[in-house]
Structure formats: structure tokens, C-alpha cells
Amino acid sequence: MRFIFKFPDIGEGISEGKILNWYIKKGRQVKSGEAIVKMETDKVVTDIPSPHDGVIAAIFGNEGDVINVGDPLVEIEIEGAEGKIAQKIAKEEPEAMSKETVDEKSFGVVGSLEVAGDAARLPAGDEGLPPKPEEVPRRKALATPVARAMAGDLNIDIGKVRGTGPAGRVMKQDIRDYYENLQKGELKVTPAAAAAQPGVLPVEYTPLTQIRKTIARNMSRSKQNAAHMTVFEDVEVSELVKLRAKYKEQFSQAGLKFSYMPFILKAVAAALTHHPDLNSELDLENNRLIYKKYYHIGIAVDTDNGLVVPVVRDVDKRSIRDLTAGIAALAEKARERKLSLEDFKDGTFTVTNYGSIAGTYGVPVINYPQAAILGSGRIMKVPLVKGDEIVIGQVLPLSMSVDHRIVDGGAAARFILEVKAYLQDPVSLFLE
Amino acid sequence: MIEIRKYDLPDARLLESNCDDAELLVWTPPFFCIVMGQSGKAAEALHVETVKKDKIPVYKRPSGGETVVLSGHTLVISYLKKNEPLRSPKLYFNRYNEKIIAALRGLGVEHLSRAGISDICIESKKILGSSIYRDKDTLLYHAVLNISETAENIGKYLKHPAREPGYRQGRPHRDFVTSLTDRGYDLNPKLIRSIILKKWAEDEKFDQKL
To answer: Which residue, of A115, A140, A165, is where some domain finishes?
Structure first.
């Protein structure tokens, strides 16, 4: 009988480790407890002992390889498989091992095969840890070796997967289906199911999507590291509204939706050239500021899947028409989830237009490690005092958060006033 | 290219010692140096040019973990235990880091807690990191306590690590690392050392090395 020994969680809660060196070779006899490989994880270099007596039938991975917890380490031909040793193993490890008899194309395995279950691990101590609630023992899921390996690779708890094979055995297609549903965020505990349990309040558990994890991480990082300070300003944009109205149809005929965003980007880029602190990054590791001599501005795009911030490159060098086309292309890619890593790289400043949905003012969170973010609210008709008269004007509310470690209050005010001046007199943008 | 020196700092001899049971060494590094984990790579872990320019010695220790700075402003706790069955590293990290926490609490240091796999924090800032080397029956626990080394000195030579504990949340060294002095504790290293030795002795038998 053959036994596949997988890289166990050595009790750190780590997910991967590096093979430092093998002590054994294929064909070598090993004793239970004998070190077979030296592994390095985040904090530990340790020998991993063989769990059984036997002969090494296969070694998986080379020295220097990084492998995941649950990946096969070695395959051991256990002596007297049908005899005493096998019986002893089966008796000692009913939860950690299962006999797989369902064929599924995988690694050319023939015959019956035992694999270490997901429960296989070196004994972990509980010292110093809070007492755990009593755990309900769970029956090990029936699954094919391929399905089990796939589940391990994808970090899926195979016990949660509904098997469609013989006797409810989990097949590889079941893992694929489960994983796809996880990705789509379709796996939830329904309120109805929760409510069916007495004393349990109805909640839904939805796995975090990758995008939500990234948003959460970035927002926390920004709030923990930057010293946020926000300034607000109203901009009278009646001229800009007229300009847009005049050319809207022309853009429309070219298949372009003419928005205010390209003007805001141009105004920001023009002001940044005169206020380099707002286009910089604090490098505390080396006690310096990094001034960026390019103006790549991120635009926050609201999608069905969450907020993304693709970057419009070289804003200072591009025309309003070119920016309009560029923004539309990025927004479409964002909504179709086709943005690549390149589309997110190298932003120096961010603009978020929450006014397109609702809202006048906000306190935007800096896209760390950038120095500032500008939020634009909804343009509103308001009564304005011009000379001694009250007239109806169009006002764009702006909110800008800066990293106060880099940008002083006066500098922030001067910058937003310059942006305001460009937007009040948009023709001036073409004179820059 | 950076020359990686053979690990010959004071605790190197622990692994070569003939002790039958256990040895504890609590020591102050004699000079400023950098120690990388077993498979650390200089180009990935260090600001190589700065390290070379300042002629900082670089070593590679037998245990795992990320790269650390050692200096006269740090205190190193090295504990070797022989004939120790192979058990979860977490057990040892918890056991020994709790001893250090208890020792520091006894000296009046507040808001201490374990964090990540093997760190000790004051509030959310790291004050100690530890790592383990072990073979079939030998355990070597190794921890570096920051008494008064500046985060600037650490960030000057060490890059942001490729892997980080969840609680670090991308923070640069300056926002992540702290020292006892930083937190307003003016404690004599010799006093800290003696309290750690005393705490260890409460339930461990060992040969004490000065």
C-alpha cells in the first residue's frame, strides 16, 4: 500500500514553505520519526519526520522549491500493507486517511491509494492560547485524490463541497463548480437557513472577493499611514457647463460621452505642475520625498464588483478629446473586469467623482502612498452673488484630502484654488 | 555582491555545544550587523548599496525568518534545548515569548501582546521578533528585543520584507517597529537580561551562559 505524505501545517498557520534539503532518496528505507526533509517557513527551519516505516517510492519537489501546505512531499510504500502495519495505521488515523477507490484521471495512479487527509499535521500545542469552544467532530468527506488535491490547491474546505460521485463522493468537477461559485460570490448562508436554527440571528456569510480584500487592505493601509486632512471648495462652473453643452453633440457623433472628468483631470494635472508636493510620495525608509515628474492620474470607478482605480496616463500631455476616449475605454474595461495590472500602475494622484451618483461633499481616502485625492460632487444650480446681484449659477463642490505629513494646509488651499481657477475659466486650460 | 559571513555571533556555538539538556544565552550584540534567515537573499532583503557603503557586516543564521538588524541597542535571547521531541513551533513561540512578556511586564512595560506568528508588540508596533531552528531532537529559539535601536536605522538597511504578518498591513519600518526607549521605558539592558533569566528559570532547567 502506498501513502502520500503531504506537507503538514506545522502549527504556525502558514500556507507555504521552502524545501531546503532532502535527507532521503527514492528507494530508501525510512523509519517512522526519521527526518526526511528540512523545510523553511516564515519563521522556522525544521526537519519533517516520516510518519511511517516504509520505502520512499517518490519524492515531490526539488530543493529550493516553495510548496503549499497540503502539497505532496513523498510517497511511501508501507511495508505489509495488508498486514499489521496497515491495520495499525488504519486504526490510529481513521480521520486522517481514507482509501480511494474511484478512478479519475490524475497522476497515473493505479489501484488503491491512501492519502493523508487534510487533518494530517504535526501536533500543535495550545499553551498560551485561549480555550477553544468544543468542536463537533466532522466526518471526513469522500473524495477522489484529484479532487482532494485540487481542493488543497484552491484552499477549499472539501468538507463543504457537495459530491456528485458514487455515494456522494466529491469529484474534480464538483471542486471546479464550487470554486466558480466562490469566485462569483454565490455561496452564501441564507437567512432562511440560519433562521431555521433556534437562537441564531439571520446573517449572511459571503466570501470576500479578491477586489474587496484589496480595497479593505488599501483603505486600512492609507488610514493607518497617512495623516488625512481635507479641504472643501465650491467652484462656479457655469462656463464649463456651457462649453460642455456646446461640444457634447460633436463628441456624441464621434461615439464619445462628453463628461466633466477630462476637464477636472486637466485642471488637476496643470495645478500639479505648479504644486509638486501634491504629486510626490513620502519615503520614510530613506528620509526623503519622491517627486514624480509625470502626471498619471487615477480615476475611481464604481463597478458592480466594487471600487477600482485605473490610471489615466500622461494627463498633462493629452487633449480633452483624447482623455475622453481614454477614460471611456478604462471605464468599460473596469466594468467588464478586463483591467490589467498595467492599468493600475504608477498613479501619482487620484480623482473620485462620487457626484455622478449622489453627494456634494465627502472626505475621500487617499490612494496611499499618493499625497492627495480630489473628490468631485454633483454640479448644482445655486443662487450666487455677482456684484450686487443674485444670479443662478452652476456650482461644483470639491473635497480634497491630503497627506498632512507632506502637504501643509496652505499648500493644499493654494492647490485647490488653482484647480478652481482652471475650472471656472476652462479656456485657460488650453493656454497652459 | 555582498559578502555573507559565516554565522559566528556569540550564539553560534550553541548548536555546536555538547550540552545534554539546555543552554540559555541572553546577550548584547557587540557591533551593528545584519542577520538574514536561512534562505534570505541580500538583493531582496537589503538596500545593498547602503549596506556596502556603510560596511555593515551581513550574516546568515541557521534559523528561518526575515532579516533583522542587531546592534548594541538590542538584546538577543538564544535558547538551545536538546532531546526535545518534534512539536509544533507555535508551542515554543508562545511559551518563550510569554516568558519575555512576563519579564517586561514585571519591569512596568504595558500594552504588550503576542502578534503574528512569533512577534511581540506594544500596542500594534513590533518590539520583538523570533525564529526557530530545529532538527530531530534539537531546538534553537532565537529572539531579538529592540531596546533602543531606531526604526530609521532599520529602514536604512532593510527593505520592506517580501512576506509580512497580517497585522503589519503594509506599514514601513518606521510605522511598524518601535523600541522600549521609543515608548518611554528607560530600562537598563542588564536589568532586562537578569529578569529574563529569572523568568526562564521558573520552569526551565538550563545552563546559563554569560
So the answer is: A140
Interface list for chain A against chain B, based on CB atoms closer than 8 Å:
10-14, 18, 20, 33-35, 38, 40-47, 49, 122-125, 127-129, 217, 220-221, 224-225, 284-287
Calpha distance A94→A101 (Å, rounded): 16
Asked whether residue A13 falls in the same domain as residue A126, the answer is: yes
Would residue A213 count as lying in a domain?
no
Type of residue found at B134: R
Is residue A129 domain-shared with residue A234, that is, in the same domain? no
Listed by number, the residues of chain B in 21-50 with a beta carbon closer than 8 Å to a beta carbon of chain A are: 37-39, 47
Number of domains forming the structure of chain B? 1
Is ipTM over 0.90? no
For residue A114, the model assigns a pLDDT of: 33
Domain containing A251: what range? 228-431
pLDDT along chain A (432 residues), means of 10: 79 71 90 85 80 88 83 81 46 40 30 33 35 42 75 76 76 80 60 57 75 81 92 95 93 91 96 96 87 95 82 95 94 81 86 85 93 95 89 94 96 96 92 72
Instruction: Give chain A's domain count.
Output: 2
d(CA B100, CA B88): 19
Give the CATH number, domain containing residue B106: 3.30.930.10
In a domain, A223, yes or no: no
Do the chains contact at A35 and B155, CB–CB below 8 Å? Answer: no
* Domain CATH for A16: 2.40.50.100
pLDDT digits (tens, 9 = 90+) for A320-361: 999 999 999 998 888 887 777 678 888 999 999 988 777 889
Contact A47 B173 (CB under 8 A): no
